[in-house]
Write the structure tokens for this entry.
Amino acid sequence: MSKSKAKAVIWDMDGVIADTAAFHFKAWHEVFQKRGVNFTKEDFRRNFGQRNDTIIRNTLGEKVSQSDIDAIAREKEETFRKVLGQNIKSLPGAIPLLKSLREYGFKLALASSAPMGNIRLITGALGIANYFHVIVTGRDVAEGKPSPQGFLLAAQRLGVEPKDCIVVEDAIAGVTACKRAGMHCIAVTNTHPGDRLAEADLVIDSLGEVTVDDLEKLLNPDRQRSSKMERSLVLIKPDAMERGLAGTLLARLESLGLRLVALKMLHMDKELAQEHYAVHKEKPFFNGLVKYITSAPIVAAVFEGERAVEVIRKAMGATDPTKAEAGTIRSDFGLDIERNTIHGSDSVETAEGEIKLFFAEDEIY
Ligand code: RTP
Ligand code: MG
């Protein structure tokens, strides 16, 4: 599986990241009113997501001169920034998703019809100014959305092919631009009802509804069959704790691309040990095993990742260190079949039960 293939998410700003619609409307209403035109909410909705020059021509007619367009646009943006003031709010789920995407190595771009002044103000206020590898504004392209130019330029600057890009949009013109660019599209119903955004691959009411995994699946639907995001319980056993190996062992598992999602140190009592090893309760080694695992404090962890259970079992090696393959944890550190350094869940089903024994739901991140 090509793990490191560049993939990108290209974000619209207004109506996707920042809740600015009311302020844009107010600003447009004010500047058009000065010119004797009543700009209604319906006018606003119809023009949403388009560049200022287009909105001005749509409202005042084709006869309006370029210098008037420039002056009106400038006045509108000044008014917008003034009325926005300190009222900059993010939309639900946007910033957490941006954070996760960054952690998972996605390239990020902002492709907005807004002028750079607005972008700086808003991304700065929301603390995401340095999240984007590339920023494309309406000024960087000859044609605004629904032309695909902005998205294509963002992809080109990121060095990512359009088919490996996902666009997040709320505007009809933005969804159209995305599909024309040959990109995948997630549409959020922050501005328009879902039926108007049906061209998108995924229509959601809030960005809180999607995870990085959902986005991965959008880019690579085959992955749905082959991919298995799993969790596994890992215990750093007493023999490892006594030799100061906890950090080494956690680092080894992290280096395999697994993500640490829960961690604690505890001294297992007899009850917990008997429950954890319940499948072995008829075995001759059961009492010895319980005594050993409760003999000293241990570290318990939950790792998450693709095929995490299998990956960890492979990294651990066979139960008996003398039979464990070279380079495995038990081969490198195991002392004997009892003092074999590490535990990892042996199936997805047992992992689920084991994790519950050691961690409450709100202890898993
Ligand atoms: P673990 O559960 O600790 O990750 O180890 P495992 O899956 O590789 O091995 P399992 O069959 O579940 O056995 C649990 C622990 O019991 C001890 N054992 N002793 N004397 C014996 O023949 C024998 N067999 C198993 C080992 O300490 C093993 O880790
Ligand atoms: Mg086992």
Summary: Residues 229-363 form a domain with the Alpha-Beta Plaits fold (CATH 3.30.70.141). The radius of gyration is 27 Å.
